[in-house]
Amino acid sequence: MIVKSDKDLTAAVLAAMEQTADPRLRQILVALARHLHEFVREVRLTEDEFRAATALLVKIGQQTTDSHNEMVLMAGSLGVSQLVCLLNNTSPEAPETTQNLLGPFWRMHTPRMQNGDSIVRSPTAGDTLFVKARVEDRQGRPIAGAEVDIWHSSPEGLYENEDPRQVSMNLRGQFVTDAEGRFWLRSVKPAGYSVPTRGVVGDLLKAQGRHSFRPAHMHALIAKPGYKTLVSQVYDGDDPRIESDVQFGVTKAVIGRYTRHDKPHPTTPDAGTPWYQLDYTYVMDAGESRLPRPPIK
């Protein structure tokens, strides 16, 4: 087609996308082209703005490394990650889900541990946290033998791959649920933290006048054949930024109660005071057990 107008151009692009053989890929590409063209028309994107936008996309790629994923960070900061999560894990019959954001820091090959073990592997100052959790299906039945990856930031708000003072795999561990679907562990209470702001996402947040903080949370990735892999975060309901997460990740179902105790622990006196207790139930849906691609190495 010889393009005579902007409308002709869009029609030509949509016709090209329609030639895609795979039905699902065709649906996605046609919708993408249609919405992109309408977006450009709506804002009347200038040539300078277009060049700046393409440069930003290049910069996002350049800022993604083995230990940092700027694209995942951007998707979360735009609310796209959480939107995909909600669209794929809620329904009128099940409006709440413990499924949540994977985040940019999950790693594979987390060390296997016994229930009750501590995931603190290097000196990490902070209040002791005891976690007692249960994994069940939609009918409330326990799921035994599920593999549970746990990871979280330090009380200073840094994951071990960001902090040279922490040894590899500090505050990470893999557990297996018992016959009652339970797993339990010891750690230190995580803190809220700022997402990295040295890159494109930081510039976006600054331009919008938004803060860069996430409320304190603990990550979990739970897998067992016959169940859809559950990726979750449990947020501290007392965190001052629980209602303004920069990644838009907080829903009612994933707010936990990190209960403070000021008297010595009844069975573990070396826990010190104060210490915290988190009790939480994860709910898995039937489906395909498949691990996501790790966002970092």
Quick tags:
4-stranded mixed β-sheet; alpha+beta; 21% strand; 297 residues; single chain; globular; 6 helices; 11 strands; 5-stranded mixed β-sheet
What does the model show?
By secondary structure, the chain is an alpha+beta fold. The chain is 26% helix and 21% strand. It has helices at 6-17, 23-43, 47-62, 70-77, 80-89, 200-208, and strands at residues 128-137, 147-152, 172-176, 182-188, 193-194, 213-214, 217-223, 230-236, 255-256, 258-261, 275-284. The chain has a 5-stranded mixed β-sheet, with no helix packed on it. Strands 4-1-11-10 form a 4-stranded mixed β-sheet, with no helix packed on it. Helix 1 runs antiparallel to helix 2.
Distance between the termini: 46 Å
Question: How much β-strand is present in the residues?
Answer: 15-25%
- Major β-sheet strand ordering: 3-2-7-8-9
Structure classification? alpha+beta
Contiguous uncertain segments of 5+ residues: none
Anisotropy-based shape: globular
What is the overall number of helices? 6
Q: Sketch the major β-sheet.
A: 5 strands, mixed
Please report the total strand number as a whole number.
Answer: 11
Q: Assign a percent range to the helix content.
A: 25-40%
Report the radius of gyration as a whole number of Å: 22 Å
Q: Mean of residue pLDDT?
A: 96
Write down the secondary-structure element order. HHHHHEEEEEHEEEEEE
Briefly summarize what is shown.
By secondary structure, the protein is α+β, with helices and mostly antiparallel strands.
Task: Describe the SSE topology.
Blueprint: H1 6-17, H2 23-43, H3 47-62, H4 70-77, H5 80-89, E1 128-137, E2 147-152, E3 172-176, E4 182-188, E5 193-194, H6 200-208, E6 213-214, E7 217-223, E8 230-236, E9 255-256, E10 258-261, E11 275-284
Parallel strand pairs: 1-11, 8-9
Antiparallel strand pairs: 1-4, 2-3, 2-7, 5-6, 7-8, 10-11
Helix pairs in contact: 1-2
